[in-house]
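pls read this stuff:
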Amino acid sequence: MKKIRKWITLVLVLAIVVVGVTYGKKLLSKVTSSSTVTTQIYTVTQGNLVSTISPTGQVEATTSEALSFDVSGVTLLELNVSAGQEVKAGDLLAQLDTEPLQLIVDAAEASVLSAQEALETAQSPYSDLEVAAATLAVTQAQTALEQAQAALDELLNPDIESAEAAVAQAAYSLSSAQLNLEITQHGNKVGKTVRELEYTVSWHERQLRNLETQLAAGTVEQDDVDTESQTLADLQADLAAAQATATLTLTDAQDRVADAQEALATAKENLADLQAGPDELELTQANNKVAKAEYNLAKAQEAADEIAAGPSEKNVQLAQAKYDAAVATLEEAQLALDSATMVAPFDGTIVSVGAEEGDEVSSGTTIVTLADLNDLRVVASIDETEITKISVGMEATITFDSLTGQTFTGKVLEIPLESTLSNNVVTYEVPVSLEGAEDADVRSGMTANITFVTGQKQNVLVLPLLAVQESDSGTVVTLSDGTTTPVEIGIDNGSYVEIVAGLNAGDQVMVSYDTSDEEEETSTGSSLLGGVSIGVSGGGSGMPSGGMGR
């Protein structure tokens, strides 16, 4: 059994080896066949070359505008058009609700008035009355300071001489008043008059009593008695007046003495105070009054200086900025209100409508797209590698897949400065006029095939593009004897290239490339100098006119 198992194992190993060898030979054969290289000889000939670019593009209206409202949250009240409708310039297309926009304008106008008032106040902040009041405040503060300083100086430097003189004067005034009182009491004219009147009244009283006795005895008349009685009454009145005058004079003299005594006491007290020096509390209060007066003067002067300096530049600039901002807000609000009515800016056709009545409009949302479909053009998408070959005014041939057999012409209108990036491909959108399509059924949005002739050469040396290669030393070709030589090339049409220098007519060049499978062939072709994919003059075979040998 062991021998049988050994024989079975040996047979299996041999079978595996045989299968492996067979498969290896087939694989080697396949690898060898995939490395098949074909060599061709091309002869330099003369011919004509036409180099073109054939991008695609799209038809659009030359005059087209997406119309929108520059407001948000406002209701669309009216929408008077629909897609496909033709309108004239000035026709009413849509209308917003203007009530909320008018409220915004009213509020903005109020803000402008308030800001204008604030600006005027900043420019002329003080009235003539305020200027005069500030000047008066400074004067009053200066006077108060001078008075407080004088009081303090008087405390610190008392005028004792004046106080002594005041005491002497008061003593003199008291002596004078006392002397006057003594004279009034004993020897003045008023007292003499009183005494004389008292004597006279006493005499006439006795005389009246005598006459009354005689009247009773019948020796005198009643008239004599009445006359004497009247005389006595007059004298008594004079006496009373004289006594009152004397009393008043005496009282006045006594008052003068009292006043003089009080003045003398005050003068002596003042002199004693000055001689004793200032009280600490009194001195502190005087110093405080001076400090307060100085502070008040500084504040008054600061206020006066501020008024004299005129308006603050900073305040004026701030008020001006607020006013300008308020005006700008008003202008924006007014513009929004004025723009609440949408009218057609030109004659055209409504291409699309992007809203319905009752919708709340958002800023930038397209409400109506208007286009002049009588003036169309084609916008070609040119790759960034080819844009330098295009120039303004370059002629183009235009065809449409939907319009078989019809060919139109155009010219490049402008070369855009900015590119467009889409799917990592950079292109330039080049506008091209569309001519001869007035009666054709060309519509906006159609795909167009555009051909630009970027170069033409007559009777030049040409070679198939495959014959030209790039090396470290530049552009070269391989001659039929296997050596390489540098060449200078010109235009190409994607299949053939112009030889400017380095070869002559009749020279033969060799091209070796792999023909075993399509993938290798494509790979080999990618290593050769490429070109744009376009046609050649004469015929449509891709051969340059004038023939080609190989």
